Amino acid sequence: MTATETGPRSPAVSSGVEPAPGEVSRLKPNAVGLWGVVFMAVATAAPITAMVGNTPIIVSAGNGVYAPATFMVATIVLGLFAVGYGQMAKHITATGAFYTDISHGLGREIGLASGALTTMAYMVFEASLVGIFSVFAKNLVNELVGVDVPWIVFALLMLAANAALTYFDINLASKVLGVFLITEIVMLSLFAFSVLFTGGAHEGWSWASLNPLNGFRSLDANVTLAGGQSMHAVGTAGIGLFFAFWSWVGFESTAMYGEESKDPKRIIPLATVASVLGIGIFYVFVSWMGIVGSGPGTGPTDALATTLNPDTMSDLFLKPVEHNLGHWAVVLFSILLVTGSYACGMAFHNSAAHYLYAIGRENLIPGFGRTLGASHPKHGSPYISGFVQSTVALIIVLFYAVSGRDPYGSLYGVMALLGTTGIMIVQALTAFSVISYFHVQKNHPETAHWFRTLLAPALGGIGMVYVVILLFQNMSFAAGSASGDIIFRLIPWIVGVIFVAGLVFAIVVRRTDPEKYQRMGHVVLEEPAGVQTGPGGCRTTRRARRRHCWNPGSDRGVGRPSI
Questions:
Q1: What pLDDT, in 10s, does the model give residues 278-334?
Q2: Does residue 176 lie within any of the structural domains?
Q3: What pTM did the predictor assign?
Q4: Of 251, 285, 283, which is closest to residue 268 (Cα–Cα)?
């Protein structure tokens, strides 16, 4: 039995009837191009939020003026991961992304457990970004018009907007994200080049900040604060590296848009590598200019003094902005922090909806195929899974609001830590699944390569494991004032229970329903070259020239698309 394309207008979907055996729903094809995919991936990383929010923490508690070197290390590790991830995307195109890749490389059981963990991560990421968006929006409105609006009002508006955009069209969402993202990049670039062309601060350039080896150096310096008093500042390189890697979370979402993209076999690998390297180079340059603009050095520095005071941390960027560009740019930066955090939250909403859809359309639990796994009959969007995601995010946000918890320290901080823990573990498993797929299972020998599919993902995977270790070692610091929250203390248990639950469910399905087990994590998109029928009975249409196939073959996770 094979899974075939049913299209966004399929009666099996639009009428609410359970898809017939061997059929799955699919998303709207050719809805987004290369730049649309790149925009959604980069928007998920939220450049302006990462720079203004994370860089001061890396400087003050991690590597000091070597923060750009920390971003450089992260670029190298994630670039190696992206090389292998991109090679996998050439042969496995599915909205399940990590879930599908790991199912093919490491087996269906680990694949489903990883899919459950990834879905959880993206679901809580949206709630997390709702928290920081609400704080930014509340402060902005209060600053511009002097009205103190409760943060929950902005939270509900964001959730409603995300639900509406996901319902209508992925292309609409990518256009909204594109506008916000371009504005962010323009303003960050204006800031960086204004520092570059004015020669920085009185201490000149800090070339040591660009040495990757300094990314492993911990802060240890005497600093003179603004009031004239001196202090000895100490940090940990592990904290700096963790926050640097955290700044990239979301780039891997490129793969989940494969089914909706034009020419996914070419676009997705390009978009993945372009996103990682583009974000990395930009982060290194902007963070370096932030330090240069505030005064770099190994002794007392304005940059360290600025970031060591919680009330002036953002001045690492805002002070040079106002000095070089004027107050209007500071106001625009404040607005972009709002739009940037919103764009990031919407991108995570899309990611969560896609993962729910990918698992739902396999109909592993009766009824999921016509609900979570249904695409809209007109728009071709994962609309039901999108509404489910909105409901979950709403429950989380309301819980934090009713319990009186802080939307920034608790909602944003704790939910981000929970999601980051899950996503880093899954990224490491994905890197190792690339090695298994090409070199253990011997799939696609024409693509297998000693560097692209072996050494690069191995180094990337080891780097991911190291980041996970750093995360656990520094989790209490990263949580800040929320480290005593019961939800924070439950993070390891939540991650462990979800992973084990997915593992156990997959084992049960394997024993009780071999047919569903064969489908698990193996629904992939095929794009045949002018053929009507392919191996395994996969079907396509002349109009879409695409098909969904899965190979009910061996139990070792082959299930590969027929090329």
A1: 889 999 999 998 888 765 443 335 777 778 776 777 788 888 888 888 888 888 888
A2: yes
A3: 0.79
A4: 251
Q: Which residues contact 314 (CB under 8 A, 6 or more apart)?
A: 52, 56
Write the CATH number for 198. Answer: 1.20.1740.10
> Computed from CA positions of residues 51, 288, 202, 234, in that sequence, does the dihedral angle turn out positive or negative?
positive
Residue 76 confidence (pLDDT) above 90:
yes
403 domain-assigned: yes
Residues forming beta bridges with residue 233, ordered by sequence position: 221
Q: Residue 510 is part of which domain span?
A: 32-515
- Burial code (b: 16+ CB inside 10 Å, e: under 16) for 355-393 equals bbbbbbbbbbeeebbbbbbbbbbebbbbbbbbbbbbebb
Spell out the residues 6+ positions from residue 389 whose beta carbon is closer than 8 angstroms to its own. 123, 126, 166, 349, 352, 353, 356
Candidate ranges 346-355, 416-425, 535-544; pick with highest mean pLDDT: 416-425
Q: Does residue 72 lie within any of the structural domains?
A: yes
Share of the chain above pLDDT 90, in %: 26
* φ and ψ of 297, to 5 deg: 150, 165
4 three-state secondary structure? strand
pLDDT in tens, 162-212: 888 776 655 555 666 677 778 888 889 988 998 888 766 555 677 888 999
Q: Which residues pair with 24 in a beta bridge?
A: 5
- Run of H or E residues at 361: none
Q: What distance in Å separates the CA atoms of residue 264 and residue 511, rounded to the nearest whole number?
A: 35
> What does 176-218 look like in DSSP terms, one character per residue?
HHHHHHHHHHHHHHHHHHHHHHHT-STT---GGGG-GGGGGPP
Which amino acid is residue 185, in one-letter code? I
Residue 17 lies in a domain: no
The model's pLDDT over 25-46, given as tens digits with 9 standing for 90+, comes to 444 454 556 666 776 677 677 7
- The tally of domains found in the chain comes to 1
The strand pairing partners of 223, in sequence order, are 231
User: What are 439-486's pLDDT values in tens digits?
Assistant: 999 999 999 999 999 999 999 999 989 888 887 887 777 676 777 788
For 508, the token pair is 């049960």
